[in-house]
Write a structure and sequence with these properties.
Chain lengths: 255, 322
């Protein structure tokens, strides 16, 4: 899978928040074999630094995708992106502009505007968006080469709420990497997203808040791999009737 | 002679356990007053091993379960349990909390009202951890300092420690690899109209809070957890989130005076558990994270056993020779 100018093998991206401890987080990431981890750069760390925590993350050797989690305005998101570039030395930015603090639905208007500003400045933007096709087009016009539609509200673990929307998105943007970001709760949700033809899955809470985060990280990695293989293998068509899988002709007649 | 750098929670708890074993102890503290430079002044003072196990290793229960008795010998400990609650929309968090903890009882609306009458009708269900308790952190620290002085420990305030000490308990000031700060922000409220007698925890996916009664209608409201070394006062965002959540817990808190706000840096290792580390001939006790009052007694006991093993082994030797 190609994301901007980088070739990536693992199709599972993991967030780094809400784990019981950094040690559990690191074990979970290793178990998932993720190559990309997202890191939130909350603005209040600005007065000091989260260096202690970031140093631990950098030990993992995974590529860091800083995010603008918790930003509600264009200005906020752009400022956070600038800070992230300085701290992590990467042009990558997962762009989140939250429109509603309860549903954590993206503010797609501010998102497109921020994406344009950041792309013009040379950032490689990963926008957290909805499955709306027109918004997707606007983001691509703004310079995005990846789209990250939500599966369900962030942290809700509800799985894929609008499968048809995601299917339409896949059909509409056949060549744009699509990463389902947010809403994945179980391995079956992740597998389903991959079976729909999504290129990757990004999740955090489902692993961080599992009873055993390390085991869940491994389960998610397996689900993503299985779902992708299932998509590539082209599943059979569904039928209304049962069809025996062994020949029925030529069987001995039973009395 | 055992020398200790730092008269915070860890330093004083170790001085106590060492003095109890007959050691001659001197403590150096660079601040002029007890507790002034200690992050424990911003602590909740909860002695809640079973609740903490929700997000911590099981070791916290093993190490923390005797903390209540330990502290009760030194300072007043309120043993009225912890009441864990969640707004109706966050019931999933309560289910998760119950699944991941033990030693609690599921309480319904009527039982919640019996425990805390002012919460009547506000929450349909909750969890009561009856064996837990809390103390007043600042009083506990000065009480502990007075006790160790009575036991003959020498306490040098306003005096930086010599270059070489036996035991280093200086928290974030210690030069230990892998030690990181986790910022916490808190507020102290004075709410004359509010009667709450035990620690309350309100679960929320983003902003879980706790409210600890400090007596005389004072309450400690905490606490954020931010991976940051910032020592500035609490941010507006942190305070508004904490206070909004407090209002959800008890609308009467809206009339509270905000007596104090503060922020401190919890020293933590990668597994968020305390560690005893030898480095250049000095023993370091550090990484108490958010479990200072809970884990200091057990860690101080371990420290004392490491520094004066003869006392422990004396009994065994006698038994062997007998």
């Amino acid at each position: 899978m190609r994301l901007y100018d980088s070739e990536v093998t693992s199709r599972l991206l993991l967030g780094t928040a809400q784990y019981p401890s950094p040690q559990v987080l690191m074990e979970a990431i290793r178990a998932s074999a993720s190559e990309i981890i997202t890191v939130s750069l909350r603005r209040e760390t600005a007065g000091g630094s989260g260096a202690g925590f970031w140093e631990l993350l950098q030990q993992l050797g995974a590529r860091i995708l800083p995010n603008t989690a918790g930003c509600h305005t264009v200005r906020d998101a752009v400022t956070t992106a600038h800070m992230a570039r300085e701290v992590f030395g990467t042009p990558w930015i997962k762009l989140e502009v939250i429109g509603h603090s309860d549903t954590l639905q993206p503010d797609v208007f501010a998102l497109v505007e921020a994406a344009r500003i950041l792309s013009d400045e040379g950032f490689q933007v990963f926008p957290y968006t909805t499955e709306d096709l027109v918004v997707g087009e606007r983001l691509i016009e703004a310079g995005c080469e990846v789209l990250m539609p939500w599966g369900a509200p962030i942290g809700s673990g509800q799985g894929l709420l609008r499968r048809d929307g995601l299917r339409a998105m896949r059909a509409h943007f056949p060549d744009v990497p699509l990463i389902v970001d947010a809403g994945i709760g179980r391995p079956s949700d992740a597998a389903e997203a991959m079976e729909l033809g999504m290129d990757a899955v990004l999740l955090n809470t489902a692993v961080a808040k599992a009873g055993d985060p390390v085991l869940m990280a491994r389960a998610m990695a397996q689900a993503v791999e299985a779902g992708r293989a299932g998509f590539e293998a082209e599943p059979m068509e569904r039928r209304d009737m049962g069809v025996p899988s062994t020949p029925v002709l030529g069987l001995a007649e039973l009395m | 002679m055992i020398t200790i750098a730092g008269s915070g929670l860890a330093g004083l708890a170790c001085a106590y356990e060492l003095a109890r074993r007959g050691a001659e102890v001197t403590v150096y503290e660079k601040s002029a007053r007890i507790g002034e430079g200690s992050v424990s002044r911003y602590a909740g003072g909860m002695l809640a091993p079973w609740c903490e196990a929700e997000s911590a290793e099981a070791e916290v229960i093993t190490l923390g379960s005797r903390a209540l008795d330990w502290w009760a010998r030194i300072t007043p400990v309120v043993r009225r349990g912890t009441l864990v609650l969640a707004p109706a929309r966050d019931r999933a968090d309560l289910t998760r909390f119950a699944k991941r903890t033990e030693a609690h009882q599921v309480v319904d609306e009527a039982r919640i009202a019996a425990l805390e009458p002012e919460l009547a009708g506000r929450f349909r269900t909750g969890l009561h951890f009856a064996q837990e308790g809390h103390l007043e952190p600042r009083k506990a620290l000065t009480d502990l300092a007075s006790r160790v002085k009575e036991m003959g420990v020498t306490l040098h305030l306003g005096t930086p420690a010599p270059a070489k000490v036996t035991l280093d308990c200086t928290g974030m000031s210690a030069p230990l690899p892998g030690l990181r700060p986790v910022r916490g922000e808190m507020a102290i409220l004075h709410a004359p109209g509010v009667e709450i007698s035990r620690t309350l925890r309100l679960l929320h996916p983003r902003i879980p809070i706790y409210l600890v009664p400090r007596g005389d209608h004072h309450f400690m409201l905490g606490a954020t957890m931010v991976e940051s070394s910032a020592t500035c006062p609490p941010t507006l965002r942190a305070l508004s989130e904490l206070m909004n959540a407090a209002y959800t817990l008890h609308p009467g808190l809206a009339e509270a005076s905000v007596v104090e706000v503060g922020a401190g840096l919890r020293p933590a290792f990668a597994n968020n558990l305390p560690q005893l580390v030898w480095q250049d001939g000095t023993l370091f006790l550090n990484g108490l994270y958010r479990h200072g009052f809970l884990l200091a007694p057990a860690m101080a006991t371990r420290t004392a056993e490491m520094l004066i093993p003869e006392t422990e082994n004396a009994d065994h030797r006698e038994r062997r020779t007998a």
